[in-house]
Design brief:
InterPro entries: Choice_anch_A (IPR026588), DUF11_rpt (IPR047589), OmcB-like_DUF11 (IPR001434). This protein is mainly beta and about 850 residues long. It is built from 4 helices and 64 strands. Helices cover about 5% and strands about 50% of the residues. Strands 4, 5, 6, 7, 9, 11, 15, 17, 18, 21, 22, 24 and 26 form a 13-stranded parallel beta sheet that branches. The protein has a 7-stranded mixed β-barrel with strand order 58-59-62-61-60-63-64. A 6-stranded antiparallel beta sheet has the order 38-41-40-46-49-44, with no helix packed on it. The N terminus is likely disordered.
Length: about 850
């Protein structure tokens, strides 16, 4: 199956497959750990041919390299090298999806290797050492190498040559982008655009002319670069926006193809957008914000990040690929019958497993581990339930077919509108601040990731520059390209040393505890932060620009962050208006770049427990300081201090044009800023600190719903083309209230009593009646607990003792002292 037959897949269905190649010693599977965005059907191609997994053996690999590599910073995806790989503590797989299989290869090094922090998946390295597995159970070292690089690159060179021979369909003309001279690549097809820049035009790009891509989003765009060497020295713009991760997410089909090149060099002033298909070339990245897309090369050298943006699993590409043996590909979707159930009510999840491959899928199993907050009631055949995990052995699914199952659950009630019986003084919180030293050699760029304890909340994070070797440069030569929250409990920053000497810096974060401490009866309340960031992407022209983000009502902004497409702009202001729930960033740029800013929204109210919540109490401390006209190179320290009963959680500032900040130091009670001024004139600056009170406010009732995410998975015993589409989630918002006291589970009969669980959103008492066909079988009372289940034990009547054992179901009515009565049919047994 050599040549294009191992590379290209075509079918009217979406047909992602694993590529197999025959080596001299036998059959070796080239395992693609992940392919691009999954669709149920192939695209409609007005030009080109609908093809699955067009990159063949390189499908799913962010870096796929035939021989050697030298790497710094990180790779967000999976990497594979057929030779030696030099790296130290290299982060790999930070953006691999949650459905990525633990045993799938994500790091493959055939030769000598460095050290790695692998976030998901497993590794093949020899010797089996130097890999820190962060993906949990099931990850580890692979016994055999899963890739035949010789055969794979033979196929990839054939692919590159084939695409390189395609006729140009788009135009390349001179124009402008971002106010600078640019080559404008214009294509109009929504399916496939092919460009063929001339040697003279490539010389312009080498000299610093910008790149402007004007093509429809989602279309395959192939730029066939001529010659044996290519250099790029400008910046990249896509439909008027400078290339960055959010822009390129809409353009996953951009491919820079180098069919004849043996040398490709990036001296780029912005992020690089698009895949690099250079199977014969040594690819060297001397300068770039980061690369966005897959790098397929003979060798690869870069101290910059490679960001994951995979070529689509189905795309319109040149040529007519031959038909090949099929492979199954199971995927799953999930939905809930209601988006906002009342606590105590019953609703259902529908799970649909589909086979979008072109071969039958065998041994298909759907699994759903029900999350806290819902209780199992029933499931359709062939599903079974044990300890809250529903397993459905659905067997074989033919190609193109699907099958569905339904799981019925009860939403556990949410405490709401209950009595205020808990003092805020009973609950306290203590923020903390992890930190790490960052040493940078001359010209080095590093990514640093810090995390809070599991379940806690990141409120702030940044770098502080401490030292620059004397005579090698200034503090301003140390560039921060990125400082942003990447998860509720995680921060990541990117810092670069543009001096000729050594730099010492510190990275820090501030963490809020995920729960309060204390409580009169030992109960705790959760602090609540939105999972999704509020973000905005904006082009920064030369000069001063402000951009503002706004949080929803009932929250305050925390964890301010930014991600620049290129170094250069200075963050001169980062200020919050907590009344308006806004955060305003100010940048001063000397050249056009793109920035993505972000904040996370923290609820000012805790979670509800026992019918009540608490308010978080904040103080915004503002300090206006005068920075003298001449400060030391490392700046002068200025402090902002919280009240005695509070801790600092987010630092902010607003600086005049001649004052720079080299960062700040978080201490529990204060924040110490280092400000630099060499203007010769004293300048007024503002530094401030958001302080969180050690204790919460007085308890109060709540009407805030609770979000519950339920994730299901599907697996098969047949070879599955794409392990990244094997999970799906459905989210519901369970509503609190005073009207719910609901029987749940089964009625258990023992002697003269019947017992059942009763869920309630309110405290108090309730009467319970068990009936069948109008006859009372049991009755009694139950004490209700807010937001939890209580076991009701009621006495059987004479009729109940005689009949209940013969019944499969009964009607149970619970009439709470607060709220309306609820009647449910409940199984007996």
């Amino acid at each position: 199956m050599g040549g294009l037959s191992a590379l290209l897949r075509a079918n009217t269905l979406r047909v992602p497959v694993l590529v197999s190649v025959i080596a001299a010693a036998g059959l070796v599977a080239v395992v693609a750990p992940l392919d691009g965005p999954a669709d149920a059907t192939s695209p409609t191609c007005s030009s080109g041919t609908a093809t699955s997994n067009a990159f063949g053996p390189a499908t799913g690999w962010t870096e796929f390299v035939e021989t050697d590599g030298t790497r710094g910073a990180e790779s967000e995806g999976a990497i594979a090298y057929g030779g030696n790989h030099a790296a130290s503590g290299f982060p790999v797989g930070t953006r691999l999806p949650s459905g990525f299989a633990a045993t799938s290869p994500a790091l493959v090094i055939a030769g000598t290797h460095g050290t790695y922090n692998l976030q998901k998946g497993s590794a093949y390295v020899t010797p089996a050492s130097g890999v820190n597995f962060n993906g949990g159970s099931g990850t580890g070292h692979l016994a055999t190498i899963p890739i035949n690089f010789t055969s794979a690159f033979s196929d990839l060179r054939t692919l590159s040559t084939s695409w390189g021979a395609a006729a140009a369909t788009g135009t390349v003309t001179s124009g402008t982008a971002g106010g600078n001279a640019a080559l404008v690549f214009t294509g109009t097809s929504t399916s496939l655009n092919v460009f063929a820049p001339s040697v003279a035009q490539m010389a312009l790009l080498a000299s610093g002319t910008h790149i402007s891509l004007v093509v429809p989003a989602g279309a395959t765009t192939i730029i066939n670069v001529p010659g044996t060497s290519a250099t790029f020295g400008g910046q990249m713009w896509v439909n008027g926006n400078q290339a960055n991760d959010s822009v390129m997410a809409s353009y996953p089909g951009v491919v820079w193809n180098f069919p004849d090149a043996t040398s490709v060099t990036l001296n780029f002033g912005s992020a690089w957008g698009g895949h690099i298909l250079a199977p014969k070339a040594a690819v060297t990245v001397n300068q770039v914000g980061h690369t966005i897309g897959q790098v397929i090369a003979k060798s690869f050298t870069s101290n910059f990040e490679t960001h994951q943006n995979l070529f689509p699993s189905d795309a319109c590409v040149p040529g007519t690929p031959p038909s090949t043996p099929g492979t199954s590909d199971v995927t799953i979707t999930k939905s809930a019958s209601t988006a906002s159930p009342m606590g105590g009510s019953t609703f259902s999840y529908t799970l649909t497993a589909s086979n979008v491959g072109n071969a039958d899928a065998t041994g298909v199993v759907i699994r759903d581990a029900l999350p806290a907050g819902v209780t199992f009631v029933s499931a359709t055949s062939p599903c079974t339930q044990a300890a809250g995990v529903v397993t459905c052995n659905v067997g074989t699914i033919a190609q193109g077919a699907s099958t569905s199952v339904t799981i019925t659950v009860t939403a556990d009630p949410i405490a709401g509108a209950g009595p205020v019986d808990d003092s805020g003084g009973n609950h306290w919180m203590t923020p903390y601040h992890p930190e790490a030293q960052v040493d940078l050699e001359a010209g080095q760029q590093r990514s640093v990731t810090l995390g809070c304890n599991a379940g806690d909340i990141l409120s702030d994070g940044d770098f502080r520059v401490d030292h620059v070797d004397q005579g090698t440069g200034a503090f301003s030569d140390v560039k921060v390209l990125s400082s942003q929250s990447t998860a509720v409990d995680t921060w990541k920053g990117v810092i670069r040393n543009d001096t000729t000497g050594r730099v010492q810096a510190k990275a820090f974060i501030v963490c809020l505890p995920g729960q309060t401490e204390g409580g009169a009866d030992g109960h705790r309340h959760n602090l609540l932060a939105d999972n999704a960031l509020v973000t905005g992407t904006q082009s920064l022209p030369v000069g001063h620009t402000e951009t503002t983000l706004t949080c929803r009502a009932g929250t305050v902004p925390i964890a301010p962050g930014y991600d620049l497409s290129a170094a250069g702009p200075v963050l001169s202001g980062s200020e919050a208006d907590y009344t308006a729930r806004t955060w305003t960033f100010s940048f001063d740029a000397t050249a056009p770049v793109t920035v993505t800013t972000s904040v996370r929204c923290l609820s000012t109210t805790t979670s509800a427990v026992a019918g009540h919540t608490h308010q978080l109490r904040f103080t915004h401390v503002v300090n206006h300081v005068s920075v003298p006209g001449s400060t030391p190179a490392e700046g002068t320290e200025y402090k902002v201090t919280c009240p005695d009963d509070a801790k600092g959680v987010v630092g902010t500032f607003d600086l005049p044009p001649t004052v720079r900040s080299w960062g700040n130091d978080p201490r529990l009670k204060e924040r110490a800023f280092r400000l630099f001024n060499q203007s010769g004139t004293a300048q007024d600056a503002t530094i401030d600190l958001l302080c969180l009170s050690d204790r919460v406010g007085t308890g109060m009732g709540t009407t805030v719903p609770v979000s519950i995410v339920n994730t299901a998975t599907v697996t098969s015993t047949s070879t599955d083309a794409n392990s990244a589409n094997n999970s799906a989630s459905a989210t519901v918002a369970v509503q609190p209230g005073s009207t719910t006291a609901t029987p749940s589970g089964r009625v258990a009969v023992s002697g003269s009593t019947a017992a059942m669980r009763v869920l309630s959103s309110m405290p108090g008492t309730g009467t319970v009646r068990v009936t069948s066909a109008g006859t009372v079988l049991a009755k009694g009372t139950v004490r209700l607990a807010a937001g939890s289940a209580t076991t009701a034990r009621v006495r059987l009547t004479k009729a109940g003792k005689a009949r209940i054992g013969t019944l499969s179901t009964v009607r149970v009515k619970v009439d709470p002292s607060r709220g309306k009565a609820v009647t449910r049919t409940v199984a007996v047994g």
